[in-house]
């Protein structure tokens, strides 16, 4: 893709504020050895920083002046306008490659280096949402295994789905190793006021479309369920391009009248969180005019398969879903089954709340990230089912992600 003009405005994916790309300084994000007596690391190239912004060394000034004071009068304004219309230089054209230069969001509450894709604006935010212990981290672990390592989206036209290098390490150590290697139950996601700056970043490309970044956010249930914390630290949810909303069946009443504890579900008596209010908040707090697809997803579906046999029949992913038509028909059949399952679980509040959305934006799914009930803190028989469906559905419903390349 060609570079945009220097006066292009983008939205910072971390703080949500608008930035003019040509007015952002270039900082080093790769460092060499710290010299004796210096409090901060130096750029890997050894270049002397022009100045520091927070903890970041500036290695090239913004190509456009940050202030208009020197451009008073019609001639100055015309000169500024002409310069702003020129192509935006890439950071690596202004600073040493080994410094991994990046534009810096200069808003005081952010001061975060921006990914290169900020130039194209092709950054899409998809948070995984749910109440405490709804299975968000387990789902995210499995769906990334399937989308990235197993490339299960390839048959539907996604030519690329990879994790960036920093996210690879986070995923490997905090998610994949624990669940797939050690067979451990993942701990609950802890409160983190910097959650907006710590997405798992995927590089994704649909056939015939330009490459893009996908920000997958894993947010603690306690933070999501607290209105003050959600609005203070989870502002990226207002700008979500899609949402995967996990419904925890353990918070609902089994249709057969048996207790979840009786079925061997750990800590079941503590899981009684209403889920409709959080769903409403997700919809109501979206930026005005934003058309955000939401995948309403029954989590831990294997736990209700004995009480709702219809769900059990659909949990096994068909092996013959080789094209989009077969996949869409299968999902349509499953969608009606999930709606009936939610009715059987008496989740009427959420079913009523989903009417707030355009029917074209909402879909219903059932997943089993673990596929078995953990025993003594271990996942003995890990057998994930249907986890790719919600992600694939919302990706297809983000028009800008799959539109033909310009």
TrEMBL record:
Domain Double-GTPase: 125-317
Pfam families, A to Z: DO-GTPase2
Entry-linked InterPro entries: DO-GTPase2, P-loop_NTPase
Name recorded for this polypeptide: Double-GTPase 2 domain-containing protein
Protein source organism: Phytoactinopolyspora halotolerans
């Amino acid at each position: 893709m060609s570079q945009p003009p220097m006066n292009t405005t983008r939205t910072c994916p971390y703080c949500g504020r608008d930035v003019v790309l040509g007015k952002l300084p270039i900082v080093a994000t790769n460092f060499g050895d710290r010299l004796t007596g210096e409090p901060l690391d130096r750029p890997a190239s050894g270049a002397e920083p022009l100045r520091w912004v927070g903890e970041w060394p500036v290695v090239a000034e913004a190509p456009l002046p940050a202030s208009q004071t020197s451009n008073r009068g019609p001639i100055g304004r015309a000169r500024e306008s002409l310069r702003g219309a020129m192509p935006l230089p890439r950071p690596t054209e202004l600073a040493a490659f080994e410094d991994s230069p990046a534009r810096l969001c200069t808003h005081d509450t952010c001061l975060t280096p921006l990914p290169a894709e900020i130039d194209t604006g092709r950054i899409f935010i998809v948070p995984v949402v749910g109440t405490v212990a709804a299975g968000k981290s387990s789902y995210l672990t499995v769906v990334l295994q399937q989308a990235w390592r197993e490339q299960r989206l390839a048959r539907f036209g996604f030519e690329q789905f990879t994790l960036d290098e920093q996210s690879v390490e986070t995923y490997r150590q905090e998610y994949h190793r624990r669940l797939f290697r050690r067979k451990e139950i993942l701990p609950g996601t802890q409160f983190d006021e910097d959650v907006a700056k710590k997405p798992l970043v995927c590089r994704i490309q649909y056939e015939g479309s330009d490459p893009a970044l996908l920000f997958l956010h894993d947010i603690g249930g306690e933070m999501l369920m607290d209105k003050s914390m959600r609005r203070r630290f989870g502002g990226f949810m207002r700008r979500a391009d899609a949402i995967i909303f996990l419904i925890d069946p353990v918070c609902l009443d089994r249709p057969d009248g048996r207790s979840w504890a009786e079925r061997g579900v750990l800590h079941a008596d503590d899981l009684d969180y209403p889920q409709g209010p959080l769903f409403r908040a997700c919809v109501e707090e979206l930026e005005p005019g934003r058309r955000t697809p939401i995948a309403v997803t029954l989590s831990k579906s294997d736990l209700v398969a004995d009480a709702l046999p219809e769900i059990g029949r659909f949990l096994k992913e068909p092996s013959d879903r080789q094209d989009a038509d077969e996949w869409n028909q299968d999902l349509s059949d499953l969608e009606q089954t999930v709606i009936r399952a939610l009715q059987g679980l008496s989740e009427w509040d959420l079913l009523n709340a989903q009417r707030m959305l355009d029917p074209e934006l909402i879909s219903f799914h059932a997943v089993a990230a673990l596929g078995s009930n953990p025993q003594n803190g271990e996942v003995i028989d890990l057998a994930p089912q249907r986890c790719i469906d919600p992600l694939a559905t919302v990706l297809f419903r983000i028009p800008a992600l799959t539109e033909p390349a310009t």
